[in-house]
Amino acid sequence: METEEKIRKEFAQRGIKLSAVDESEVMDSNVITPGTPFMHRLSTALQYYIHKKINEDPGWRKINVVLSDSNVPGEGEHKVVDFIRRQRGLEGWNPNTRHVLYGLDADLIMLALATHEPYFYILREVVVQTKASSMQADVQMHLFQMNQEENKKKSQRELLLEISRIDRKPYQMVHISTLREYLILDMGNTAVKPSFKVDPERLIDDFILLCFFCGNDFLPHMPTLEIREGALNLLISVYQHTMPKIGHLSKGEHINMKRMEVFVERVSMCEQAIFQKRNFLQQRQKSRQRQQLEADRRRQLDQQARARASAEAASAAKAAERESNRSAADLLRDRLLKKGGGEGSKGDSSPAAGEKEEGACKEATKEEEENFKKQLSETVKKSGDKLKEILFAPDKIRLGEDGWKDRYYAEKFHVSTTAAIDKLKSEVVQNYVEGLCWVMKYYYQGCPSWSWYFRYHYAPFASDLRGLDKLDIQFDLDKPFKPLDQLMAVLPPASSHCMPPAYKELMTSSDSPIADFYPETFPVDPNGKRYSWMHIALLPFIDEKRLLASIRPLESTLNAEETRRNSLLSTVMVIHKSHPLAWSLLELEAKTEKKACAIQAEKNNCISGTAVIPDGAVGLCPKVIRSCWDVFPDVQRNSALGFSYQFPAEQVHIPRPLKGTEMPAKVLRDGDTPMAPEIWHETRGHGGGRGGHGGRGGYGGGGRGRGWQGHHGGGSGHFAQQEILQHNAHGMIYGNGGGGR
Where is the Xrn1 helical domain (predicted)? Predict the structure, then answer.
């Protein structure tokens, strides 16, 4: 904000009045978090849209639409795969179901792999690094700001035609089956032939585990492993050498600790070489930067000398001109005096040329507004580049030099004695390995604990992971936070506008009993990274007991809407009244003693579960669905049925294709095995990525207090559609919305 204010003042001094700062909530991306008014409105809008489409679009009449909004705990994409896991293997489930999941997050690919469903696709936007079209922005702004009365006069077709003029983004489809082929070829391309039969499905599980070592939403990466230094290449290379001797590292969610320790020990042998190369590159970069700074200094001195000489020449010329004009001025003054002009006559008191009077700024043109945005963006980007500070800051740890490990723990964890360092290392290793197990269970079986979190800002070294089979690792399931509790745990005070008044006071008042949870300033550790967005914010970890003790008394101050926003609700399913399931639900609604029934998969597009009829006067099929905005009409004579939907009971996930699966035709040949990449620390340069022989297929592209609490729960609409894919009779489409809890 300070940067923006400074640039705005510069434009004002030049006489340019920019448009006012947008103070709306859309300027704060933190509103995309469960419990905020924005997410409540989004959920209401999604329900309206679903009912509208089922009523008006014939293509929606035979499908089941499942809406799991931000009041249902769980990350959106994890709710999707939880649905799939619970359906797999049940009577009536089609093992050849096609799944299409929309989203750009890389973890969607990991989750898809973990299901071991071969017919899985990720629909992604193609990310193109080009400037956004100004026409597109203009059209979007026009559509949002059009007069509502004018919109009412237009037909839906006319409005849709206007929307269709917006530039469409290109999409790509990731075929998980092709990725599975690549991974099986690559991971199975071992240095020697194993003495046992390699399980292709366990190769997939092992790949997912290796990726978690490089860092994820719940664990920091180990100092040894930097993804930009080809850490994954190193891990796969070590795996190819160790797997034939020790076997697979995992089976589904279960990690073999003895084998993993052998694997990590082999990785740790590279630590010294990795750190030494980092130091070498940093010193080389520092030397080049010094040379550049010296060249810049000399160039600046030359420019100053030339400017000074030019100014002196101009000053001499002006002095000579003033001297020659002085005699003429004296003559003119004498003549005026003779005519009676007094010396006390006042000259013109108007402002000097070029001075801007108060309020004289002109409205900024569109081009000037664009220039302002460009200058602001470039300034923010430049201020986030901390290369010089990183290069010339004192390196207190000196990784790769004798004693680097003790210096690391002393500097990062603030312990100094040998005994304290040893004790700390064992605690960090315990917590880190717990994290690996937690994440594997989370991806394969669902959340194993709502209260677990990694308690440190930094990870241990690979060489510290010893005695893993002796660790006692267990999880207590616990319960998820309520939405407002979670907001208090993850939002900064600057986003307190999302909170009810009493909660906001707790976040912003200096007298708050938990004021220490929301510091105005806090240390940031660059940790050797060039850009500020990569730095580590050393925020205090939230004390759950203190937080909840302060919040609970405030729940009585909430109004009806805030109370609903703070509730944990259930998933909703919506179908058309012509759906095979509809009649039995209407019969159930007519009964008074029973309001829930098991859903038979054969009547419900191969989907099992439990339907619960809603209480109250609204019922299954209200006559009218009210619109959220004046611009959209109410849905009259509603034909959509909405009810609470409960997933089937959790079952043990089978980490392989189910019996009866017709595996996709293979795309790759043996010659498509990816070439072994250069390992970063073994090369003189910066290293490269994994290459290939031109295979015919390919693939595209927490919270502070309770660890993952910053991610659980998410606004997500799950769209399950039958007969959606060309070559399959049964498919499902999942839309993953924002606002993960």
Answer: 198-672
Looking at the fold, whether 404 and 461 belong to one and the same domain comes out as: yes
Q: Which of 385, 390, 417, 547 is nearest to 482 (CA)?
A: 547
Copy the structure tokens of residue 9: 């003042």
Would you state the pLDDT for residue 696?
A: 30
In a domain, 285, yes or no: no
If asked whether residues 550 and 488 sit together in one domain, one would say yes
C-alpha to C-alpha distances, 198 to 201, 239, 246, 661, nearest whole angstrom = 9, 13, 12, 20
Cα-to-chain-centroid distance, residue 320: 67
Token output for 163: 């929307």
The three-state secondary structure class of 572 is: strand
Query: What's 585's DSSP letter?
Result: H
For residues 212 and 436, the answer to whether their CB atoms sit within 8 Å is yes
**Spans in the chain with pLDDT lower than 70:** 1-4, 7, 10-11, 13-14, 16-26, 128-167, 323-362, 364, 372, 376, 379-388, 390-392, 592, 616-617, 685-730, 737-741
452 and 525 housed in the same domain: no
- How far apart, in whole angstroms, are the C-alpha atoms of residue 355 and residue 462? 65
Could you give phi then psi for residue 569, rounded to 5 degrees?
-110, -175
- Is residue 204 in a domain? no
Of the residues 565, 580, 613, the one at which a domain ends: 565
Domains in the chain: how many in total? 2
Q: CATH number of the domain that 541 lies in?
A: 1.25.40
Last residue in a domain, options 565, 596, 611: 565
Work out the burial of residue 127: count CB atoms within 10 Å of its CB; fewer than 13 is exposed, 13-18 middle, 19 or more buried: exposed
Please, which residues have CB within 8 angstroms of residue 28's CB and are 6 or more apart in sequence? Answer: 494, 495, 497, 498
Residues 404, 459 within the same domain: yes
Q: What angle do CA 124, 130, 136 make, to 5 degrees?
A: 80
What pTM did the predictor assign? 0.79
d(CA 463, CA 471): 16
What's 531's DSSP letter?
B
Residue 464 belongs to some domain of the structure = yes
Provide the residue range defining the domain that includes 506: 483-565
3-class SS at 153? helix
**Tell me, what's the pLDDT at 293?**
80
Examine the domain organization and report whether 510 and 552 are in the same domain: yes
CA distance 443 to 601: 25
pLDDT attached to residue 382: 64
